[in-house]
Design brief:
The structure is a single chain. By secondary structure, the chain is of the alpha/beta class. Helices cover 35% and strands 15% of the residues. The chain has a seven-stranded parallel sheet. A six-stranded parallel sheet has the order 10-9-8-11-12-13, covered by helices on one side. Strand 2, helix 2 and strand 3 form a beta-alpha-beta unit.
Length: 363
């Protein structure tokens, strides 16, 4: 009997889409080990292995690009437009090549977060495409106006061919998708006990004085690390290898460890607006400090979700970059809504896909 085969296509932008999708893929593998995962992404294999413990096939391919960025906060719209037009020009050859691969490997279902060509692969290959996200790229580009409007229209047309969307919390309306199922929060689960993390990394500060600084795979060059000198009794955790050597700064240089592994020992997580960090911190009930981003349309929905469902602080950019971080001595704002978000997104999405694959295993 043929193994169920799932083709997982991930948007080519930073690490956030890769880690949240890998969390769902890992759940599928745990619940149904016979499913063969084909992870289709330019994200590095080591990153996927931080989430998926079993075997998988890694197919490094890019079908979109998200936004061209120098770091977590600075975007290059001109370069983004040029590369999107290039993808549009190559659309037919990209589809032909992937459909050939999908048929040869007897893939039964495509799961995508959220490259817009994936529904076209599925349509041509005669299988369903299920997608997952809290926003579509059409929403991001349409907000930029000008030549991006035509690009957004093209992407919306692609999304209309998606068979099912698992819509994550902190979402925009996503009107292009014809069949939407709302799900709970997704993300990784800490792999170590709080005691183990503290021992391995020499963390002795109490949780309220232990802070995780995480700005995603793209990092953030201009973090004002000098401010850490104002907090000598606190400890700050970063994954930024270019950070200076300071007595109260712990640089995580072992790829086995992920931001989510440190969240349970922290009183606050300081991050740019990004679904992965917001979702994992909210899953673990860890307060979040963040900076608004007026140039990225998704940010408004993330901030609204944060204000509604987690203890938080929203710090203005000038306060973060030019201030002395006095906000760390100020109380957190409580969530505005009293009922929590569902936290079973990984399981709900994974189980739906397993049910489909098992029902179609004999075909």
């Amino acid at each position: 009997m043929q193994r169920p085969i799932l083709y997982v296509a991930i948007t080519n932008h930073g690490f956030g889409h890769a880690t949240r999708t890998a969390s769902v893929a890992a759940t599928i593998q745990k619940l149904c080990p016979e499913v063969l995962l084909i992870m289709v992404t330019t994200a590095p294999r080591w990153l996927l292995e931080c989430y998926i413990e079993g075997d998988f096939i890694h197919r490094p391919r890019a079908f979109d690009l998200g936004v061209v960025q120098a770091d977590s906060l600075n975007m290059d719209k001109e370069a983004t437009l040029a590369r999107l037009l290039e993808i549009k020009k190559q659309q037919n050859s990209l589809i032909a090549s992937e459909v050939n691969f999908i048929r040869q490997n007897r893939v039964q279902l495509i799961f995508a977060d959220i490259p817009f060509l994936a529904p076209l692969f599925a349509q041509k290959a005669g299988i369903p495409c299920w997608m997952m996200s809290n926003f579509g790229w059409d929403f991001i580009y349409r907000d930029w106006g000008g030549e991006f409007v035509a690009i957004a229209d093209w992407i919306s047309e692609c999304y209309q061919k998606c068979d099912r969307l698992f819509r994550l919390p902190f979402h925009e309306p996503m009107p292009a998708f014809p069949n939407i199922i709302d799900v709970g929060l997704t993300g990784g689960t800490p792999r170590y006990t709080a005691e183990a993390i503290r021992t391995i990394w020499g963390i002795t500060a109490p949780p309220e004085k232990t802070i995780l600084l995480t700005f995603g795979g793209l990092g953030l060059q201009q973090i004002p690390y000098d401010n850490l000198r104002h907090f000598p009794k606190w400890q700050f955790i970063v994954f930024d290898q270019s950070a200076p050597d300071l007595p109260n700064l712990i640089k995580i240089n072992d790829r086995k460890f992920r931001p989510v592994d440190f969240m349970p020992i922290c009183g606050r997580v300081i991050s740019k607006p990004g679904y992965g960090t917001f979702s994992e911190a909210t899953l673990l009930d860890v307060p979040l400090v963040t900076i608004p981003r007026d140039d990225f349309a998704e940010a408004a929905f993330l901030l609204e979700g944060l204000v509604n469902y987690n203890y938080h602080q929203i710090v203005q950019p000038e306060e973060f970059f030019q201030g002395k971080w006095d906000f760390l001595n100020q109380p957190l704002q409580p969530p505005q809504k009293t009922h929590p978000l569902a936290k079973d997104g990984n399981q709900a999405i994974a189980q739906a896909m397993i049910n489909y694959l098992q029902a179609h295993q004999y075909m």
